[in-house]
From TrEMBL:
Record's protein name: Transmembrane protein 260 isoform X1
InterPro entries: GT117_domain-containing, TMEM260-like
Natural source organism: Notechis scutatus
Sequence intervals crossing the membrane: 37-60, 72-92, 122-141, 171-188, 200-220, 274-293, 300-317, 337-357
Keyword Transmembrane: yes
Keyword annotations from UniProtKB, A to Z: Membrane, Signal, Transmembrane, Transmembrane helix
Pfam family, any one: TMEM260-like
Amino acid sequence: MGPLSWAGAMGAAVAAFYVTAAPHSALGGDSGELITAAYELGVAHPPGYPLFTLLAKLAIELFPFGSAAYRVNLLCALLGAAAASLLFYTVVRLSGSQAAGIFAVGMFSFSRLTWQWSITAEVFSLNNLFVGLLMALSVQFEEATTAKERSKICKVGAFSCGLSMCNQHTIVIYVLCIVLWVSSRLFRERELTLSNALKLSFCFLAGCLPYLYLPISAYLNKARWTWGDQTSFKGFMTHLLREEYGTFSLAKLENGSSTTDVLLFQVTHMKMELSLVVQVFAIMACVCCAVRPKTEKSQLIWLFTSMLLTYSFFFAWRANLDISKPLFKGVVERFWMQSNAVIVVLAGFGFSLLFFLGEIFIGNSRMIYSLEWLLAAVLVTAQIYSNYSVCDQSNNKIVDRFAMNLLSSMPPDAIILLRGDLPGNSLRYMHHCEGIRPDITLVDQEMMTYHWYLPKLAKHLPGVTFPGDRWNPVEGPLPDGTITFNLHHFLKVNRHKDTFVCIGLHEGDPTWKKDYSLWPWGSCDKLVSSKVPFDPEMWVEHTQNLYNWTEEYGRFDSSSWELIANEEMWQARMKTAFFLFDLAETGSTSAQEKAKLYTLAYKLYKEIVSTYKTHPVNWHKNYAIACERVLHLHPAREDPEVLLLEIIKHFRLYLEKAAEDPQQSSILQAIKHMKKELREVRKLKKAARRRPA
């Protein structure tokens, strides 16, 4: 078998694992949005990902089975397998060893990070494919012996570079490194002529042609969900350069970890994902080329090393997210796949070098050959064994169920004001792609603040009235003629519809507080006119069983969207009780009404806490405080001794799990006070029993 046949076999093996583990539904993050953009032929968030969108649309139309999400997930799995093939080909051409290729690709493809993000509808598996393709072409260019061969490879490479830029822009670092290296090589060979440069530029621009999809989609304006208006040059460049996020930044207005912290965490993370063995072999490859600079393929090793270092430093500098927060760490780590792909190629070369040296010193080539294959097989098998159960997402429907619960809980013809990636992307996917609750209208809070949102999408939001062109707390015409409106005005003109916010309301516009209140509705809230009287018993009955949620609390990884969805569903169980308690604490109501609210909140807390053994830690604290308030109401039906015991017990349970609470000293003082009260209550009970009847 030649290198191409081996590469195909390796890709097929990876595909077999990926396809069986692929989820049948949309997962968290950008997955729902990317699928919806493809399904609707709209434009995804900046920079638009036109190539992925078009490929995903083809998969949705051509694959004959499964939901839209499953079809795009399968596409990504196949792209990830193709990336594995290209990386295998690169390592084998570098090292001459199939075992080294299997080792490198197995450690990369079956790492938790790569596996997880190669089987869900995200742009990372396509980016991995381009990383593998550019490195494979670099190897071919280095091996080319004639000007004609080099010219052909350069044209394919230039086109591939342009095409890769139609997906994830982080690959631009690798593109620049390779372009500089190829240019210097062509210059030395006296092949870098103006004519060749123009031809290569043309090939690069031809690769960028998928970006024409953006203005075409924006001009047709058929998609019920799209991002931005690319019909003008300014709008196109705004989207292409990610100006709404911050060009060369991961997020807008975020204060992230330092460059040093990100780099150190990347090295540690690499060890966890790929193992120390991979790092050692990669260093070994670099050391070998440093000691013997004229080693065959040393130029490629230095090229790949420069790509790795440049990308790692640049990304660490621009990754403006706080990686101490699990969810942000999960966002950042996905971009380390691009560097991990290079690391394993270097490690593959180092792996083969070890056995090459072993053959020189030991001399028994058959034994060395067997050991090489045995070590590769053991390491890859261990990688698969370690990560399969974690990466098997075939039964993961958490985010789908989250969205289904939210949508099914809504009354007919409701408006949902969306906020955040989890509710926004998951509800959009279920609503637009799966046709769930077509009577409901989804309106994005953040998008309403953008100048393009309503002009582009208002016609796709029937039954909703927008009293202007753009949401802004300060109403009135802007210098460019745009008419702004605030939330109060929006609610007023849409008072004939029930309006909900999921999850949370934009803090910048408090105008709604003038005539409206937020009442809890599971994970969401309902905006209700202040003129409507609040009946606590009725509202409890109305919202107590909104959702059908059976997932255990705390069983998901801290950096996963599944954990966020599960957390929202669990906190929703306590939300009405918390609302009633807060209303009693802050509302201007009578003493009798306060007592009623406290008692009702206490009963809800008690029922919830006693029903679930494992639950959010703050429930203990909330329940203990509710018991304390009821204790001082002196209710006839509640035994003060029982209430005091509950307060002490649940405050203690809370402190066991939340030792860093800044109110710890106050809680300990409260426990001490409650113990004193408990002794007094027991004394009174004892005295009462001794008293003659």
